[in-house]
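Sample intake sheet
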Amino acid sequence: MAVKNSAARKHFALIDDNFIYNSMANLVIAIDNRACITIFNHTCERIFGILASDAIGKPIKEVVPYTGLIKVLKTGKAHIGRKVVFGNDLYIANRTPIIKNNQVVGAIGVAQEAIELHKQATELDETNRQKQALTSIFKHTREGYLSINKEGYINLINPAMVELLSVSSDNILGRHITEVIPETQLHLLQIDGTSQHNELVQLGNQNILISRFPVSNNGQVDGAVCRVICQDLDKLAAIAQRKNHAKQESRADGAHYRLDDIIGAGKTISQLKDMTRRVARGPSTVMITGESGTGKELFAHALHAHSSRCDGPFIKVNCAAVPENLLESELFGYREGAFTGARKGGQTGKFELAHKGTILLDEIGDMPMSMQAKLLRVLQEKEIEKLGDRAPKKIDVRVLAATNRNLTEMISEGKFRQDLYFRLNVINISIPPLRDRREDIPELANYFITHFNREFNLNIKRLDAEVAGLFEAYNWPGNVRELENIIERAFNLVESDKIELNNLPQYLIKQKETVRPMNNDKTLPVLLESVEKEALIEALEKTGGNKLRAAKALGISRAWLYKKIKQYQIGL
């Protein structure tokens, strides 16, 4: 130890005392027992406008008149925190005697600008206020906080955490974390310094949600902090469920989707979105056509959501789902006693419910001819007449209609009124089938993967390359709905982090096997039609010719099945 101290003394002896004083921003002056200047640093030179070489050795009163250092030298008593003015600036000075062998041999004074001291005092005061605020939050928050050092010993804990752990606050500080929570991994965080957020852990009989993160000091992990985000997950889930239910109720008569919710950025779908946005601003009736599963209802929602009626109701009626004898009362309502079995008080029809809003007549091609005439009158006169009521009632409703059927063919066959068609088809929005917008398939697949990851609590990342290629080549008779159905099916079978060929339905895998040995004399559309025809025949054979079951097995509508049977001239 003596050797070390000797080396230290030699090291510091090499540093000139004046070098230390001149490095200080404060004013430093020292005098000897004759009141002559012995130290005069660079700050003094700047303030008094005299070089140290000219000041040192002179009596201090010749350089700094009215200094208190002479009095300190005579009395041997220090002056602390004295205010001194040099030029136009106020300084705070500390003057102390230099004592050796119980004798006063000199005096030294150190002064600092009052503005700088005030700034430091203000910063310290602000720091104290922030500390008090954080301490108050830390003490009164219902979130539990616990901090440990790098060895795993508790150095900070707030009352909420003490209450949660059901321990005494008197002896918890200084204890190792594993003594308080044996199952915790908090003390392991300093190994790699990683954070853990929103982790579900069980504490006794209670499930809690916590976050853990390391405390760093100069780039080194110095400990860790645990924060309890939620102590009662069951209560939180109940609150979220109530809010979600309330939200759904509040939006029950509103549009649920906007154009931004419609997946696809390809040229075809982008142009269609732009057209829909423009059409939404007007009052005209709109006919939305397209194959089953293309997303006609989504566009109907978007038309309402982007219109001036967006704050009004959005009412949907599936014309194919309501029995013919009930459709009139469903659309227009009825008065009490209008017919046997009529509800007491009557019923408000869908058109009346849609007043100041929008009504979507889905599957309009399946509306009976008798109702078509009545609907035409509503569109022309903008009024309805309830069953059992002779007085018509004016309504303000924008009408949207949707169908996957060819209405012009139905008109020629006498199954749909031409005058109603022209009244509904003021503007036509034709949704392209998925095979005509193949560039959107990857984005749609990713969207459904993300959606079903939440539903199934899985982490599927992508499609296998073979699957992606098959999706690009497939004809998609069921369109987007069929794609969604296939991906959901795959989620029930998937065993890795990607959807593979063996997770797909057999009719799709069979197409892959058929397309692989491609002949040069056949184009891809011809091959796909061949596969599609085989899939139809196989489904019909398996269901014994039951078209409804065959359509469900293929993920397509019955109307689309009939169309394909006719197209390929499949005999039954």
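Comment: The chain is about 45% helix and 20% strand. The mean pLDDT is 82.
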